[in-house]
Amino acid sequence: MKTNDSNVPKPNYWLSIFKMKCPRCRRGNMFKDGRTYRRISLKHIFDMHEHCPECGQKFEMEPGFWYGTAYVSYALSVAISVATFLAWYVLIGFNTSDNRIYWCLGTNGVVLILIQPWLMRISRVLYLHFFLSYDKDYKQKKPTAFG
Question: How far apart are CA 29 and CA 49, in angstroms?
Answer without folding.
Answer: 8
